[in-house]
Amino acid sequence: MKKYTLLFFISLLWSCKPEDPTIAFKKQMAVDLGILNEKVSKLQQTVVTKQPQDSIQNAFLQARIAYKKIEFITEYFMPSATRLVNGAPLNEIEIEENMINEPGGFQVIEEYVFPKIDTANHQELIHQINKLQTELKRYQTLQDLEYLPSQCLDAARLELFRISSLGLSGFDTPLSQNKIAESKAALAHLPKYLDIFGEVDKDLAQTFSESIQFLETQKSESFDAMTCIKQYIQPLTKSLVNWQKLQEIAPMKDTRILSVEASSYFDTNAFSGDFYTHNAESYSNPAKSELGQMLFFDPVLSNGNGISCGTCHQPDKAFTDGLKKAKGISGKQVQRNTPTLMYAGLQSKQFYDLSVSSLEEQAEKVVHNPLEMKGNLEKALSLIEKDEKYKQAIQKAFPKVSKLETRHLRNAIASYVRSLSPFNSRFDQYMKGKGILDETEKVGFNLFMGKAKCGTCHFFPLFNGTVPPDFQKTESEVLGVFDQPRSKTIDKDLGRGTYNPQIADWHFAFKTPTIRNIEKTAPYMHNGAYQDLNSVIDFYDHGGALGLGIKLENQTLSDEQLKLSKAEKTALIAFLKTLTDR
């Protein structure tokens, strides 16, 4: 009898033993993936049987909600598969492999379902849903992966950043305009996964609850994105990071542009452009930046011909020159407007045509360009090595280098440019809780993230086209920019298509630059044709070239007119001016 009693208690103790977090994580994920597949199957059924429009649209929204509950997992652990589940409805071009991959997934399907069912393409809609079901099968391999608690909590943290930047702007739900419900669903479901790694404490539970309650009070047409981010999502992210510390789960150790320890986009040192060097030897430091600054403003880079990087990139104009198009070594206009170098270190591609992948490469191309600086880094190196002030600066910047090479000059210049990300605008101070914005400026931000749709291309908080929260890809857009505002003649510059004319999608495509310090960087667009912010906003308000009746089949900007009122345009400009660094 004692033997059986002992076995009973051992069995009882074993059954009470906490389940391995990895196993529990996979179980919850399996449940959620099953629900997602069920919802997509229901969507397919409603479409195949030609149910009423409301039924089809509701089935689509329910499938999207199911996806949002596991988005933090799929985006983190299977980003390539996720591109075909919830990627942008644009061709994915892989120039190295000479491949063009057609888009697929929820965003493509949305275009057939909203704002009304596209009955003329009924079979294509069914085809796209079938494609989505096929792609969802790839998620089955998620069960084969090993999950570390640090990875899972990192994925949850990044989802909060994703919601702030993409979810609240409606980036991936532009037509159904269901961003509030989807953001709420993502937030409400995260605690189920967090509980696996430790009981969610009162503070974290409360911040989740408050965030969800706030979203429940909001309506799409009057959504207060500013309050949501500042008063709810930011505190929630900080609570999550603090809770992770209490669970004694260390953060990830890898190097990224957004720090693995950041609890807010506005933390000190939250961003690091060194990520894009892909080489620890090239990482920046103050001494390198100081040497780079000396070189930046020295005509020695142009063979002493009186022009330096600073000739076109002037600090008082946020490192632009105020000209329609830059003037090169001969005094003649070059092809494009001078872009700001502020925050240039926080994007994965450089130049308007995204033709280079590093600031080092950018520096070399500009110096050697016969129409720009017409310089020679080898000659510049031979000159500065004889200069005493440079000798000292070089020793500080590269103390372990026995023989200086031109790559070190490139790296120094790039390091200086990477230092030009101060994050000290009035907007930054407000988001840090150290300043104020007036009501008009707040309304302007909400328009930026909402009705004006600026935030779907100029992503908060860098306000450039580098997609958060992993910041690995810098996007380009085809807007249909005119050679003069309202001229109805598209500027002839092919942008990315200049070097790849065989790719029609890239004709007239240009990098989405940061609009931080936009108050100082007129004139605007790649050709400098737009003299003020009013003319730029007017262009977007009318839906670019397509919206103004010009045929441009590959335009990526929506041709839908925004219908911004005069007061809304004023508020939008008021907000943009808060992005000026002090």
UniProtKB/TrEMBL annotation:
Signal sequence bounds: none
Keywords attached to this entry: Heme, Iron, Metal-binding, Oxidoreductase, Peroxidase, Signal
Places the protein is found: Cell envelope
GO terms of molecular function: peroxidase activity
Cited Pfam families: CCP_MauG
Span of domain Cytochrome c: 287-421, 439-580
Transmembrane segments: none
PANTHER family attached to this UniProt entry: BLL6722 PROTEIN, CYTOCHROME C PEROXIDASE-RELATED
Protein name according to UniProt: Cytochrome c peroxidase
Organism: Flectobacillus roseus
